[in-house]
Amino acid sequence: MNHILKHIVALLIVFSSTNLIAQNSSIDYTISFDKVTINMQDISVSSTIIKNNNTLVWNQSNNGAFDSSTYTITNNTENWNQSTSTGTLSYTMTYEGHQVDLIILGEASGMSATLTFKESDTEQDIYTFKINNISYQ
Questions:
Q1: In the predicted model, is pLDDT for residue 134 greater than 70?
Q2: Alpha-carbon separation of residue 60 from 19, 112, 137 (angstroms)
Q3: Torsion angle, CA of 85/88/89/94, rounded to 10 degrees?
Q4: 73 to each of 48, 57, 77, 82, how far by Cα in Å?
Q5: Which of 34, 40, 90, 127 has the highest count of CB atoms within 10 angstroms of its CB?
Q6: Do residues 131 and 104 lie in contact, with contact meaning Cβ atoms separated by under 8 Å?
Q7: Does residue 54 contact residue 73 with C-beta atoms inside 8 Å?
Q8: Does residue 22 have a pLDDT over 60?
Q9: What tens digit of pLDDT does each residue of 25-61 get?
Q10: Could you tell me which residues are beta bridge partners of residue 70?
Q11: 10-to-1, 23, 94 alpha-carbon distances in Å
């Protein structure tokens, strides 16, 4: 009986540590889109957002000009199904001393994102875009 109890305790430890690893894992990916809406105005721009660990990089190109912005993720909530690309990814980030929030929503009808750049307590820029593609690293 004591032998069986030791095996049960060992299995509980294994299951507990496996659950902790799964909770701490982070989804890394690249998304692409070709249009951004800013203050209800559509702007054509070829873009990718690359999320790797606690860094998010937004690369944009338009008419031969290229721009890249790097954000540091300070908080995240990832409720995402990679096999169906559905759920919600939510990040709080910093960029040049400003808070930036990104929410990615995946539904059966497609994926979209909203990036909110907070200039101050009362002023913010909101960028929305429809995601064309997502690939996972």
A1: yes
A2: 38, 17, 20
A3: 150
A4: 17, 10, 11, 20
A5: 127
A6: yes
A7: yes
A8: no
A9: 689 999 999 999 998 899 999 999 999 999 999 999 9
A10: 57
A11: 14, 20, 42
pLDDT above 50 (res 126): yes
Give just the sign of the alpha carbon dihedral 62, 64, 46, 25.
negative
pTM score of the predicted model: 0.78
- Positions of E strands within 9-109: 29-38, 41-52, 55-62, 65-81, 86-95, 98-107
Q: Which residues of 20-32 are buried (b: 16+ CB within 10 A; e: fewer)?
A: eeeeeeeeebbbb
Q: Which residues of 75-112 are buried (b: 16+ CB within 10 A; e: fewer)?
A: ebeeebeeeebbbebebebeeeeeebbbebebeeeebe
- pLDDT category of residue 4 using cuts at 50, 70 and 90: very low
Which tokens is 41 given?
Answer: 């105005």
